């Protein structure tokens, strides 16, 4: 009789390493959105192509930031995405970009988006364009996280003008009830944060994926999962402006820092990076909710936005084959963007033929 260790038993259930979902990523500098002293460009949206041009939307701010150590942050810029606006850039080839200016700016004093608008994502559907983004009001200290919301702007053109919805489309739930039950998951510091929205039209409804998290201090010095407690949720609506109803299955992941998702074969695929026990995996949910690990991947991009092709059903990696993410420069926090590509050297199922087809398309 064979005796198996727990490690061996786990290994028998791992996804096939060289299967069609497996990949690594390579990185290339961009012209036009590279390092610029004093300027932060980060949190790339999904990339769309309209009339022969690629469009990307991103967080842009200027000047130094000081972290939470400066106090409640009422006046000081705490993070690179604090006191930010959403800008956009265009490109004919995906490598050389031209910054076009602001797409969505901060709101008027007293509004829910007065302090910052950041971490956008873009969706084209039925001839209209939808920008979802994270907001912060000027009514409460930034560090509390209690006034973070999700905003929406709509346009008939990827260049705007963008019409803001005057109220948030997603707000934090009460302390301890973010996931529909009183488990104190998001009580305390940074409780109920609402980050990284990503909008899909799926199964005849609008699906809004998002990230929230907690700190060790909120769990009596312990994380519920390995590493930072970061998870994703989803909310659904019959209209893009809401109202949205949180899924009863939330949280739908136990890992992943920034949201990164795409359509595949009637379901939703996702890249989970950085945080949690299932970090650096690609997962797939046939119903958009119940995700299974399809591959453990490596060199994953941070705060990435992938090119959204018209169809991503041909291959599991079609929805993530290239895009943009941000990197660190000279000790500053993630203040410029580069291009990422699925690296064919680490994916036997696509090999060099896939790389050539990718280059030909862009």
From TrEMBL:
<protein>
    <submittedName>
        <fullName>Family 43 glycosylhydrolase</fullName>
    </submittedName>
</protein>
<keyword id="KW-0326">Glycosidase</keyword>
<comment type="similarity">
    <text>Belongs to the glycosyl hydrolase 43 family.</text>
</comment>
<keyword id="KW-0378">Hydrolase</keyword>
<dbReference type="InterPro" id="IPR006710">
    <property type="entry name" value="Glyco_hydro_43"/>
</dbReference>
<dbReference type="Pfam" id="PF04616">
    <property type="entry name" value="Glyco_hydro_43"/>
</dbReference>
<dbReference type="InterPro" id="IPR023296">
    <property type="entry name" value="Glyco_hydro_beta-prop_sf"/>
</dbReference>
<dbReference type="InterPro" id="IPR050727">
    <property type="entry name" value="GH43_arabinanases"/>
</dbReference>
<comment type="pathway">
    <text>Glycan metabolism; L-arabinan degradation.</text>
</comment>
